[in-house]
Design a protein that fits this description.
single chain; 671 residues; alpha+beta; Glycosyltransferase; 5-stranded antiparallel beta sheet; 21 strands
Length: 671
């Protein structure tokens, strides 16, 4: 009779899987593994690379390792030890923020060793799950009004904490999972499906993995439990940010609060691997298997064994298009001249960002900015996150007044010295940069709050973008947009920026960069500044700025040897260079210094800032800059000419001529 009931439940579970049911069927295992998966997992145990993973798992002796060993081999002695260690871990546990947190590990032990649990042990697990859940939002039972967009709430407490724990104990007590799933579907899913459309994450190059790993783990949890999937298919492409932002030296183009300066954090591999396995994506699997990342944790090895397909085609990144546009709600573009890696690579990478929505938290105010890498970082996002100086910590003075500000970016400042209302709108210094939306009061809590125009979280609009002839191997790529809403309305009437790249066939000058700005201020005396940050001291001669990076790479000590030459075509201006040897920043407008010390390998504080500012006072100013990348040893030059009458910009490189029109804030390709 018991056998018949078990077979009935198993068949019912399979039916629910096929239908995408919301009903939790009383059959174990169901946390990341179903009964039908076990035979498939066992088939992998003697096949590379899974055999090595299995050997290391069996040698570990931790609660999770013992639990998976019991799951596959049914050694009751091993299973009982897993239960003992799992309870010990739970009783000592407090923090369910990390991915492999006590709730998740406890859920796996409970579920995988379920046949061995006594009734008192089940109650001990439940009591500890509830105790830990109460320590942090969303609390227990999960509060339906929990902020779901950014912050620690968007990490493990719900997605990889209460959801798996609640699902494990569902038969005994359904309250935890029911409340957590309701919060997930009502608050967490809508805002994630909204930002997944951008094929990237709003929290930057480091926090993409810290946050997104919980999203993809929740997707796996629902799939393996046979429950209806909650996230859109656009989730597959969020880790593509890591592919396209990958610099040839193995680091990432900087965005947001960067704590993983080297780009080697194993959580990046984790999200690539788990997403590749879930969606069977050959490019993400290639990225996951590249020799870029720090060592795997034992938990990574366990879940690779459980989730990675026994076979999945891998495709080289060089098969991908060289240009990718990341649409709303992010609104930015990456242009690559190729996919060759290494400090000696001849490939350039350009990041061009207009930006749409400001999600807050670890996102910086970088609307209308750019970065350039060629044989080293040349035009960079500056500053140090969480430096040794206490003022560099999250929310402290350096973070608030420089690192998170537009003044740390290759963007535009419009300084209004008398704007008292502007000061009230933001908790940071008035430096002419972009302001905090929602009067600096709070980050968006949910999608409704983010989209409400009265809160001002939409700070930019992409008006146009494109590539000629295509994004596979483009000659010309551009993005243009309006970033007026990013600045205080008392200061600006209109701010627009167009950025474009020309990919040449010239090996000495593989890429030309053009940036064209139009700024209309409310008053003519409001000072406008065009910023360019670099790791090394620029050379300024007339209207030409030259940046050479000959520093050593932090890891292999190979020397960078890239050069960026930039000509400031318009307006009539003055150009000056500012330096803070302690990696801070002082603007002539605010006369105030904020300091952060370099502390980690790979940190690029970029203490040199080149500032271009008009010499006259006027409401409307235009900035037109043309630059190119070249090896330090090269003396090749680009001839640039701008006809004010026709607004035609000619760019001549040896036997190649490129014609553009720069008029009223927009560039047009005339070739």
């Amino acid at each position: 009779m018991v056998l018949r009931f078990s077979l009935f439940c198993f068949c019912l579970l399979l039916t629910d899987i096929a239908c995408g049911s919301n009903r939790v069927v009383p059959v174990h295992p169901r946390i990341f593994v179903q009964q039908a998966d076990i035979a498939l997992i066992k088939e992998k145990l003697n096949v590379p690379p899974f055999n090595t993973l299995w050997q290391e798992i069996r040698q570990d002796g931790g609660a999770l390792s013992l639990a998976v060993e019991y799951l596959l081999e049914k050694d009751e002695t091993v299973g009982r030890e897993a239960i003992r260690k799992g309870l010990t871990l739970l009783k000592a546990g407090k923090d369910a923020r990390p991915l492999y947190n006590p709730l998740l590990i406890g859920a796996c032990v409970y579920d995988w060793c379920h046949p061995l649990l006594s009734q008192p042990q089940k109650q001990q697990f439940i009591n500890e799950f509830v105790r830990i859940a109460k320590l942090h939002q969303p609390g227990f039972p999960a509060d339906a009004n929990t902020p779901a967009v950014v912050g620690h709430n968007s990490e493990g407490w719900l997605l990889s904490g209460q959801l798996p724990a609640g699902l494990a104990i569902y038969d005994e007590d359904s309250q935890m999972f029911a409340a957590a799933e309701s919060l997930l579907r009502q608050q967490y899913v809508p805002v994630r499906n909204f930002h997944y459309q951008a094929h990237m994450h709003h929290q930057g190059d480091s926090y993409i993995s810290a946050r997104f790993q919980h999203d993809i783990m929740a997707a796996w949890l629902f799939r393996r439990a046979g429950l209806k999937q909650v996230f859109s298919k656009n989730q597959q492409y969020v880790p593509y940010q890591l592919l396209y932002h990958l610099r040839p030296d193995g680091q990432q183009m900087r965005s947001g609060d960067t704590f993983d300066d080297r780009g080697r954090d194993h959580s990046k591999r984790r999200i690539a691997l788990f997403t590749a396995s879930y969606y069977r994506d050959p490019y993400l699997m290639t990225f996951a298997d590249m020799n870029l990342f720090a060592s795997k944790t034992i938990e990574d090895k366990i879940f690779e064994l459980l989730l990675r397909p026994s076979s999945l085609e891998r495709k080289p990144l060089s098969d991908l298009p060289r240009v990718k546009y990341f649409p709303e709600p992010m609104g930015e573009m990456i242009v690559r001249t190729g996919w060759n890696l290494g400090v000696n690579s001849n490939d350039a990478v350009v990041h061009m960002r207009i930006g749409n929505y400001f999600f807050g938290n670890h996102q910086r105010k970088d609307f209308g900015t750019f970065q350039i890498y060629y044989k080293g970082p040349l035009a960079v996002s500056s500053g140090v996150y969480e430096g040794e100086d206490q003022r560099a910590k999250y929310g402290k003075s350096y973070w608030m007044n420089y690192y998170h500000q537009t003044s740390s970016q290759n963007g535009l400042l419009i300084y209004n010295d008398e704007n008292q209302e502007f000061e009230a709108k933001r908790p940071s210094v008035n430096d002419g940069g972009q302001y905090w939306p929602n009067r600096g009061q709070d980050h968006p809590h949910n999608l409704e709050m983010l989209l409400n125009p009265e809160n001002g979280y939409k700070m930019g609009e992409v008006n146009d973008y494109g590539f000629v002839p295509n994004n596979i191997n483009p000659s010309y790529s551009y993005i243009t947009g309006d970033i007026t809403a990013a600045y205080p309305p008392e200061t600006v009437e209109n701010v627009s920026r167009t950025m474009a790249t020309i990919t040449t066939k010239n090996k000495n000058i593989p890429l030309v960069f053009v940036v064209y700005d139009r700024v209309i201020s409310r008053e003519p005396e409001f000072k406008k500044s065009w910023l360019l940050h670099s790791e090394t001291m620029p050379k300024v001669e007339g209207n030409t700025i030259v940046i050479e990076n000959n520093q050593s790479h932090y890891r292999n000590k190979q020397q960078y040897f890239g050069k960026f030459v930039l000509q400031s075509v318009i307006p009539e201006k003055e150009i000056w260079v500012e330096q803070d040897k302690r990696h801070g920043f002082t603007t002539s407008a605010i006369k105030q210094e904020f300091v952060a010390e370099k502390k980690r390998p790979g940190v690029e504080p970029a203490s040199w800032t080149t500032i271009v500012s008009p010499t006259d006072n006027a409401n409307c100013h235009e900035f037109l800059h043309v630059g190119w990348v070249t090896p330090i040893s090269s003396n090749k030059w680009v001839n640039v000419n701008f006809e004010d009458d026709t607004k035609e910009l000619s760019i001549q490189l040896e036997d190649s001529m490129y014609l553009l029109k720069a008029d009223r804030g927009k560039l047009s390709w005339l070739n």
